[in-house]
Amino acid sequence: MAKKKGEDQDFEEEPNFDDPEGFVDDVSDEELLGDFLRQKPCESDGVENVIVVDNIPVVGAARFPKLKGIIEKIFKNAGTIVNVHYPKDEEDNTKGYAFVEYKNQESAEEAVKSLNNYRLDKHYTLLVNRFADFQKYSDIPKEWSPPQPQPYKVQNDLYNFLLEADAQDQFCVVSETVPGSVQVQFCQNTQPEPTELLKRERFTDTYVKWSPKGTYIVTFHKQGVVVWGGSSFVKVNKFAHSNAQFVDISPCEQYLVTYGPNGQKIVIWDIRTGAEKRTFVSDGMSNASMLRWSHDDRYVARLVDSQIQIYDTTTFFLLDMKSIRVEGIRNFSWSPTDNIIAYWVAEEVDVPAKVTLMAIPKKTELRTKNLFNVADCKIHWQKSGDYLCVKVDRFSKSKKEKKDKKDSDVKFLGMFYNFEIFHMREKDIPVDSVEVKETILAFAWEPVGSKFSIIHGEPSSANVSFYETNKGQEPVLVKKLEKKVCGHLFWSPRGQFIVLANLQMGTFEFVDTNDFSIMKTGDHYRASEVEWDPTGRYVVTGTSGKAKEDQGYYMWSFQGRILKRVNLKNFMLFLWRPRPPTLLSDAKQKEILKNLKKYYSQFESKDRLRMTRASKELIEKRAKLREQFTEYRSKRVKEWEDQKKRRMQLRNSTYRLRAIFPLCRVVSNGWISLSLLSSFRRRHRYAGG
């Protein structure tokens, strides 16, 4: 029954929300209202978008518009500029610094990263800092306190591979175990069998590349590239460059260059620190867009729009803040031992082609050679830098006279070839010329020595000519090997020995150029690559690509004897680990070669001991395998004997069934022959029934 209005109602006692006596509130405002407090306005709002540019020129009102245009043109590459403020004095002159405000913080950070130490001209180098950093630097305590000592971390030894007592080289074998999974196996070239050092599954997405001195190995991934080193190949650094297709490493291994898809982005990195030093944009992966290093990593250069752009790696700015403009330039190349550039310029109407040697950084021309009727040139430096060869493709021309001598036309009847040899170590750099009428198939310098070799003629029956260059003399033809079916030349890194290769047929000839004797010939069907080891003692030929059934590699001695055949499914690449140049002087190396016979007995005894030890290990391994096989066979024989009774039982039942089944069919058909009945009795008796 409902109560009437005004009647008393029962209510529960209200809870008491008051704090107890003596209560202390220990909950901070940050814990309660952290999200709201972070939105509280502060003095530094917007400051992180502002940078301070110091060391700009001090100019008056007349030159201020030009300065403003230059500064804004430089800094707009980092992002959208909102405002630029130039403080001025009473005379309306700039004070040498400016404030640049960007649309967001990321643009300001990019400007500091890319434009700090930007060289405006030879007198002014801009210094760029974040405005927010000034507060950080102003809060540095006045009293200095010594830093706390940190525990020592053992660094990875990047050069331990050079400490191998017997100077045995390392190599890596790259293969695709499953689609999209590339395995890399690292081995020591011990005899008679290589020793596996490490095997990495999914080590790279495509392939690997050694650095020039063998300190690092580079792997390729979708996000970028990774540099590894040390005895167990630990990660040294990683470089974020999406879909990088290939890399280049400077000769002294200080810098790494990554090339993006289709050459659209080229980045130079510091290998040790991982810092991005310089970025370029290229229209394509043409040869002209490639960066080329000087031998000492001091300079890096590239060819752009008839200009050689040389950058000093101390600042990565253009040398003398300007390019070297050469109209008609086609290509250039650094000397492998000196800061000298060789470049060639194409021929124009009434202007001959020319090859020029230029010294860097002074940019002085050391030597120029004019050339006529030129179709193309190729520049080949000898590894030691003593000689330069320029292969010149020339037109053979003749003039056909008309009645009017003023209108005589020129006809080109064919091609011939010249090899211009520059003697780099002689005074005034004399040039000698070697002319060849036949088609040139290959050219190669002897890496250590003074010989060069040429393959010329038809591919099916070519000639291989060897020339020798000496100081103060013209190149001399020392040997001509006729009717050779080869198209490639592979010199030993130590000189003297050379491999004449036909990579279409997979045939190889091993030649000793001391007496030009053919030591041995061999074949490796479908071999597509040839790799000498750094010591010149071993040669590896490899088959990869489309030849699925014959993939793998052969290892040969420098004399042409096959030491090992390895068939490897989905074999991709074989690479010897490079070695740094020797620290011994030329005189010391000659002394060692002269007294090599004294050490021969020591090396021979060590080799015999190694082979004996290896033979003993091989015998023990074979004995162990035989023992395992014998044990397995005995186990299976015993099992067979134990099952004999059961087999006999099964066999009797089987014979009965086989004999009764045809009889049943015959009887069911209503007739039976005497011969079939006797046959049944014989089978039944043989089966023991």
- Terminal-residue CA separation: 104 Å
In DSSP terms, counting alpha (H) and pi (I) runs of 4 or more, how many helices?
A: 8
As laid out across the biggest beta sheet, the strand order is 2-3-1-5-4
Largest sheet descriptor: 5 strands, antiparallel
Radius of gyration, in Å, reads 40 Å
Measured as a percent range, the helix fraction is 10-25%
- 3D shape: flat
Average pLDDT for all residues = 84
Number of β-strand runs: 42
Q: Give the amount of beta strand, in percent.
A: 35-45%
Show unreliable segments: 1-7, 403-408, 663-674, 684-689
How does the helix and strand content classify structurally? alpha+beta
Quaternary class = single chain
Task: Give a description of the structure.
By secondary structure, the chain is an alpha+beta fold. It is 19% helix and 38% strand. The protein contains 8 helices and 42 strands. The chain has a 5-stranded antiparallel beta sheet with strand order 2-3-1-5-4, covered by helices on one side. Strands 17, 18, 19, 20 and 21 form a 5-stranded antiparallel beta sheet that branches. A 4-stranded antiparallel beta sheet has the order 8-7-6-42, with no helix packed on it. Helix 7 runs antiparallel to helix 8. The protein starts with 28 loop residues before the first helix and ends with a helix. Residues 1-7, 403-408, 663-674 and 684-689 have low confidence and may be disordered.
